[in-house]
Hints:
mainly alpha; 3 helices; 86 residues
Amino acid sequence: MMSFDTEARTQAVLTLYTETLADVQFPDVDCAVLTAAAAEVAAARETLANAEAALDSARGELNQTDRAPATGQPGPGLRAYLRGSQ
Length: 86
């Protein structure tokens, strides 16, 4: 999958519309529409970052269940116990 910096590309388009194309309006797209869309993208990016942080935290907690309580060393863990009891 190709990765690219959406924040930089968004800013480049907004800069183009606020400088070079400031007086240009298309029927459905102008600087105000693009600015609103950029704000939605920024909010979605923040939501994603928060979700990824929560996922990392949950993974860390789950990994702790795979440690032997007394030693903290890898052990059979709760998940292995639960798999065997099904």
